[in-house]
Each structure stands twice: as structure tokens, then as C-alpha cells.
């Protein structure tokens, strides 16, 4: 039995629908949206005393069910198929005397103006608007005009639809331009396997008198999990919001059928603000042998630790899922703009939503564990938030690390998963002669982070490698006491130049920073200060180096570039491309002493671009070493102007151990995890 139309145009043909309903017989045909799912939305907009018109009723049970539950009885159903109208009159005539079925074309209705309070359409608009041909759009305009005519002011046009983009856009634009209020509801699913993977929506268009001039459009969306509508600013944004929910439904359907080969990432947004509240990553581990208790788990990443390799990279999350021993692990990152009521609050908020991401075969009532590090959600305190004309929005925040450790971080919000600068926090050291805290004074809370910056600690592995590169400098004097001239381009929080200043007692450090806001941040929040041996020049590094090359060549023992690119469209985030162009590198070489070292922090995900950068560096600097940072994209390049300074790994290791011994003066703090020789052990000569 062939029920499908030969062409989309047949959806508007009475002959087609007569044939369809004769062949189908008495069995009700529901396009989509069962009554139990639609009922909560219909109850909001249909009152018992309303006069309701159902257009394109077919043999759906919707009108009958509305009548039988007492939602409304004064219901008029129309359709262009004589066969289905006869069928429905026979089925409901005696049982539902206040409800009628009429043979009528909705494009040319016989009802008087303003005759109904509600017009209900279940799939009819979707069936009519099969394409965007001129003739089709003309019919839709005629349909909308007739619905508008027969509705009273304040009446509602309820349209049940799958919300294809062109259908939704047409309806929203037409009625919003007429001055109607447009609201889109997502219909909650039943939890059973549905006929359609895509969610069902109900457009609610409320008729208002058209106001002359340009009245503001009122466009809203109600997601299935909330009653309060969210206002959107344009028809395009409303269509995009619906599209996001359709993509999510398709994703959930796919995840519920097959394991995901690649990690899936999605944001769950705050109901009030619409801003991201949780970032979820779905990770499947094929190597884990499934059992009843290890199919699925949720891992809450402690606040502030989402940038760590284990949580912030695909490989790290893959390792986390495997070590946790679950077939599917959903990691959940918490956003700094949001407030959370502890682990229990997060679990209550997410438990329903994450089950939509469950793997195939998970029993319906299976308990899913929520995991975390130490069983808590971590601590994140935003100390400062501001905007820089050059760096954009940024925050300074204190976060809790492993155990009792705390760190202060600088984050540029345009790249919120990258820590720009980091420093370890310690308890303040009492000043000489300062009295100790009296016993009767209130002690600080154990959860309260310490407030002083530990200047002896280099948090970033690439900073440790950059300092280790000073072992390449020649000369018989031990470096810590040698008179060194060091140029650092890129200040950030200032930890790199501060470490060199404090541990190399005769070093004179010049820092170039293009953004004056960063100098203020470093001094206020990261313990940075200037002095006789530390000077900051607020300038473009390109201009500063060019000026030095013209005026005072060969003056620096070490030049270090740790400067980020503001252009996120380039596959290299550090440094900006202009800093590794050959003419500029020639100028860098000019201001470097013949036995000096140029240290470059390179962060490049574009393999072809990276090879081009390395080739340019080889052209300018005859001797080139590289140190890759494990688990990170960073690669530290050590460049020297003369091949005569070449040293083998054994010699480099000996020099590193000697330097570290000299730096570890008695009574001076030193991070025991920082071993200079380890930093140089994996150095390769290019």
C-alpha cells in the first residue's frame, strides 16, 4: 500500500488525502507529538470556554482527547479530505455532540472574522510548507492571513511542528511583523523511544492589534526543562536556539545507540542568563570491559583545574576515563561566572540532563556515580575582573590545587581555557620586629587561601625550561653571580623576569610589554616590582627591538620571547607571526651578544606553519636546540648566533647541575620539583 506522496505538492491535494485516509482506514494517524506530551503546553493556552478551530485535522485523536479530558468542548475541525471528515463524523458525532467536523479549505474559510479564540495546527503547516517556491510561499501567506482573520485579538495560533528552519523562520517573521507575540515551546519527551528523533515544538503566536510604526518584536523560547520563557533579540537568534536543541537531540540519539569514536563537547547554559554554566565532554573507553557497575559515570572537574592537562586535553580526558574504569565518562567543567551549591547541588541539577548522554544498554534506573578529586568541587575566587583595549576581558582568580596548595592565575577570557600567568600563593612572612598574632584573635579559616606570592616558584613548565636555557651561556664565572643583561618580551604576571632577577643577583632585566594594563595587574596582583635591576618598557616589542638594533647592537646575553598572539585565527598562538619573520629575527640577532642565547616560547598547532618558523630560525641562527613540553603544545627553542657554542647533552647536564647548585643558596627557598638538568635532558639539536 503506497501512502507517500509522489511529490511535495500532493500534500496540498484533497485527492491525495482522500486516497491516504481510505487506504489507511480507521487507524488514527499522528504525525508527531502524542497528547500526553502536548497536554502541558496546550493547558497553558486553551481555556475550557474557548472556541477552538483545528485546521487540517486529519484523523488525529488530538481533538477527541482534548474534549474527553475537559480541556475544551467547543471545537471545530476542518480538513480538505471528504473521506476523513466522513470518517471522523462517524467516529465522534454521537460521543462528542459539542464538537464538529467540516469539509473546508483553510485557505478559504467560511467563518466570520474574529470567530475563534484558538486556532490549533498539528503538522499542517509542516505539510504545506515543503519548499520555498513562490507558489508554496503564497499559499502559506494565504493560510496565515485566514488564521489571522478568524482569530480574535488576544487569540492564540498554536502550531505543532518539527521546526525545520525555513518553516520556523517563515512563521516567526510573518507574525512578528504583524505585531504578534511569538513564543516557541519545546515539548518534553515521554522518555520512551519516539517516532521522531527530532524534538517537537509548539509555536504560540498571540494576536495583538498592529501598532503603526516600528514596534519592538517580542520573541521568546521556552526550553522543555523550564516554564519561564527566555527573550531573544531576533528571528535569526530564535531559529538558531531551536537548531541548537535539535542538534542536541540528534547527538543524544546517536550517543544512545553507538559508542562515540571521538570526544563530544557541549555547553549547558544557565536558564536565566543564557550563558554557559557547564561544559561537558563525553569520553568513551573501548578498552574497559563493561559490567553492570562500570558503564557510566560523571566526573566533576574542581573549579579552576579545567586547564590542567588531565582535564583540559582530549588525551588527558581519555587517560582519566581509562584510569577511572568506566566505559563512558562525562567530564563536567564549571564556569567562573556561575555560582554552585556544592557537589550535592550540582548532582541534583545535572542528574536528569546527563542521563540523556547515557551509553547504549544502560538500564533505565541504573544509579550513576558522580566523581571528583577529593569529593569536592574545588575553590575559585575571582579577585579582579577588567577589560583591556589590547587584551580584552580578563580575570585574576585564586584557585585551589591539589592538597592545600593555592594558585593565582591570569586568564584572558577570549581564550578562557589557557592560563596566561600563574603564581603559587603562600602565607605572608612576618616583617622583622612584627608581633605574632595574639592567641585570642580569630584564626583564618582553613578554606581561606593564603595571600602572598611565592616568587621562588615557577608554575609554568615552559618558564622552567626557558630559565634552564641560560645554561647555554658561556664564560668561566658561575651564572648566578655573573653580570647578565637579559631582555624579556612579554610580561604577563611577571613571574619569569622576577625569578631571573631574584636568583641571578647581578642580572639586569629589561621587560617589554605592549599592554599597560598587564603591568598594573603584575604589580597589584602578582608581587611584581621595578628597581635598579628591573625595568619595564611599555612598548610594542617589534618597535623596541628595531630601535635597539639601530642604536645599540650586541648588548644582551639572553633574549626571551614569551608573548601571546591576539589573533586567534592563526594556527600559532605564541608568538605573533611578525615576531618570527626573518627581517625581525635578524634584528634580534643584532642585539644579542655573539655568545648569547635567544629563547623562544613557540605554541603552534599548524604543522606546516611550524616547519616554516623552524626553517626561518635555522636561516638566522646556526645553532638551534628545542625542548618540547610534555603534555602541552609549547615548545621552547634555544637559538645561538654561533655554531661554536654547541654543547652535547652530557656537558649541558653538567652545567645545569652546577648552575642549580649555585642557585640553591642556603636559606633561599627552592622548589624541589624544579631540576634544571631534567629540563635540558630532553633537548634536541635541530
TrEMBL record:
One GO term of the biological process aspect: methylation
InterPro entries with a match to the protein in the record: Lys/N-term_MeTrsfase_sf, Methyltranfer_dom, SAM-dependent_MTases_sf
Positions with biased composition (Basic residues): 434-444
GO CC annotation: cytoplasm
Sequence segments annotated as region (Disordered): 424-450
SUPFAM superfamilies xrefs: S-adenosyl-L-methionine-dependent methyltransferases (SSF53335)
Domain of life (superkingdom): Eukaryota
Residues in Methyltransferase domain copies: 50-171
Keywords: Methyltransferase, Multifunctional enzyme, Transferase
Family of this protein: Belongs to the methyltransferase superfamily.
Listed name of the protein: eEF1A lysine and N-terminal methyltransferase
Organism: Campylorhamphus procurvoides
Gene that this polypeptide is encoded by: Mettl13
Amino acid at each position: 500500500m503506497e501512502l507517500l506522496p509522489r511529490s511535495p505538492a500532493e500534500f496540498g491535494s484533497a485527492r491525495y488525502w482522500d486516497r491516504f485516509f481510505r487506504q489507511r482506514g480507521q487507524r488514527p494517524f499522528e504525525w508527531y507529538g502524542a497528547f500526553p506530551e502536548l497536554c502541558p503546553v496546550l493547558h497553558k493556552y486553551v481555556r475550557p470556554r474557548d472556541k477552538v478551530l483545528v485546521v487540517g485535522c486529519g484523523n488525529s485523536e488530538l481533538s477527541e482527547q482534548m474534549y474527553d479530558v475537559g480541556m475544551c468542548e467547543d471545537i471545530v475541525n476542518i480538513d480538505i479530505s471528504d473521506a476523513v471528515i466522513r470518517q471522523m463524523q462517524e467516529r465522534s458525532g454521537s460521543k462528542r455532540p459539542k464538537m464538529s467536523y467540516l469539509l473546508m479549505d483553510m485557505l478559504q474559510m467560511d467563518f466570520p472574522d474574529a470567530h475563534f479564540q484558538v486556532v490549533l495546527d498539528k503538522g499542517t503547516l509542516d505539510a504545506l510548507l515543503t519548499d520555498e517556491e513562490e507558489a508554496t510561499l503564497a499559499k502559506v501567506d494565504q493560510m496565515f492571513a485566514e488564521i489571522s482573520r478568524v482569530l480574535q485579538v488576544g487569540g492564540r495560533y498554536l502550531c505543532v511542528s518539527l521546526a525545520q528552519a525555513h518553516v520556523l523562520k517563515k512563521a516567526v517573521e510573518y507574525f512578528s511583523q504583524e505585531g504578534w507575540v511569538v513564543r516557541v515551546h519545546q515539548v518534553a519527551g515521554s522518555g520512551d523511544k519516539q517516532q521522531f528523533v527530532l524534538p517537537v515544538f509548539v509555536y504560540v503566536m498571540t494576536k495583538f492589534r498592529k501598532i503603526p510604526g516600528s514596534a519592538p518584536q517580542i520573541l521568546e523560547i521556552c526550553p522543555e526543562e523550564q516554564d519561564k520563557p527566555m527573550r531573544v533579540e531576533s528571528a535569526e537568534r530564535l531559529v538558531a536556539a531551536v537548531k541548537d536543541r535539535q542538534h542536541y537531540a540528534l547527538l543524544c540519539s546517536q550517543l544512545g545507540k553507538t559508542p562515540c569514536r571521538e570526544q563530544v563537547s557541549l555547553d549547558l547554559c544557565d536558564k536565566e542568563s543564557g550563558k554557559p554554566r557547564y561544559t561537558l565532554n563525553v569520553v568513551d573507553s573501548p578498552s574497559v570491559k563493561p559490567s553492570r557497575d562500570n558503564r557510566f559515570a560523571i566526573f566533576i572537574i574542581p573549579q579552576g583545574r579545567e586547564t590542567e592537562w588531565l582535564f583540559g586535553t582530549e588525551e588527558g580526558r581519555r587517560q582519566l576515563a581509562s584510569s577511572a574504569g568506566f566505559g563512558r565518562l562525562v567530564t563536567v567543567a564549571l564556569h567562573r561566572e556561575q555560582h554552585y551549591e556544592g557537589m550535592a547541588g550540582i548532582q541534583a541539577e545535572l542528574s536528569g540532563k546527563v542521563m540523556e548522554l547515557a551509553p547504549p544498554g544502560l538500564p533505565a534506573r541504573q544509579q550513576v556515580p558522580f566523581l571528583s578529586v577529593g569529593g569536592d568541587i574545588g575553590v575559585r575566587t575571582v579577585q579582579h575582573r577588567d577589560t583591556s583595549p589590547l587584551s580584552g576581558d580578563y580575570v585574576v582568580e585564586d584557585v585551589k590545587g591539589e592538597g592545600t596548595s593555592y594558585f593565582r592565575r591570569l586568564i584572558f577570557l577570549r581564550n578562557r581555557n589557557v592560563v596566561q600567568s600563574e603564581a603559587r600563593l603562600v602565607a605572608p612572612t612576618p616583617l622583622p620586629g612584627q608581633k605574632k598574632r595574639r592567641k585570642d584573635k580569630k584564626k583564618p579559616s582553613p578554606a581561606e587561601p593564603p595571600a602572598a606570592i611565592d616568587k621562588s616558584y615557577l608554575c609554568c613548565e615552559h618558564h622552567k625550561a626557558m630559565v634552564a636555557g641560560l645554561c647555554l651561556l658561556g664564560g668561566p664565572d658561575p651564572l648566578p653571580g655573573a653580570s647578565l643583561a637579559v631582555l624579556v618580551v612579554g610580561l604577563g604576571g611577571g613571574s619569569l623576569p622576577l625569578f631571573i632577577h631574584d636568583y641571578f643577583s647581578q642580572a639586569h632585566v629589561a621587560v617589554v610589554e605592549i599592554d599597560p594594563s598587564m603591568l598594573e595587574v603584575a604589580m597589584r596582583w602578582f608581587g611584581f616590582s621595578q628597581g635598579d635591576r628591573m625595568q619595564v618598557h611599555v612598548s610594542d616589542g617589534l618597535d623596541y627591538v628595531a630601535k635597539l638594533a639601530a642604536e645599540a647592537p650586541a648588548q644582551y646575553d639572553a633574549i626571551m620571547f614569551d608573548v601571546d598572539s591576539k589573533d586567534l585565527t592563526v594556527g600559532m598562538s605564541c608568538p605573533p607571526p611578525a615576531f618570527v619573520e626573518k627581517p625581525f629575527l635578524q634584528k634580534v640577532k643584532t642585539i644579542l651578544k655573539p655568545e648569547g642565547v635567544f629563547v623562544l616560547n613557540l605554541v603552534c598547532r599548524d604543522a606546516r606553519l611550524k616547519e616554516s618558523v623552524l626553517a626561518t630560525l635555522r636561516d638566522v641562527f646556526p645553532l638551534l636546540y628545542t625542548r618540547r613540553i610534555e603534555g602541552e603544545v609549547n615548545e621552547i627553542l634555544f637559538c645561538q648566533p654561533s655554531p661554536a657554542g654547541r654543547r652535547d647533552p652530557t656537558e649541558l647536564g653538567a652545567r645545569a647541575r652546577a648552575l642549580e647548585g649555585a642557585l640553591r643558596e642556603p636559606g633561599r627557598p627552592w622548589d624541589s620539583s624544579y631540576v634544571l638538568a631534567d629540563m635540558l635532558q630532553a633537548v634536541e639539536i635541530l
